[in-house]
Write a structure and sequence with these properties.
InterPro entries: zinc_ribbon_bacterial. This protein is mostly beta strands and 60 residues long. It has one domain. It is built from no helices and five strands. A hairpin with a 6-residue loop joins strand 1 and strand 2. The protein starts with a strand and ends with a strand. The mean pLDDT is 93.
Length: 60
């Protein structure tokens, strides 16, 4: 598993998520661990390293 830290697009607090680097590109929704709002997360991996990451508010 790969842990990535980023700012929540709702509350701007730093949060972390665990991601599976064996899946090259994925999009899923996970709630912020601070404010509980849903975040659309799109990580992209290459050779098990994170090469792209986007975290958006739902509906944006």
């Amino acid at each position: 598993m790969y842990e990535h830290f980023f700012q929540c697009p709702y509350c701007w607090e730093e949060v972390s998520m665990l991601m599976d680097p064996s899946i090259v590109r994925q999009t899923y929704i996970e709630d912020c661990e601070v404010c509980c709002n849903p975040i659309e997360v799109t990580p992209e991996f290459q050779n098990s390293e994170l090469v792209g990451f986007e975290a958006r508010e739902i509906g944006q």
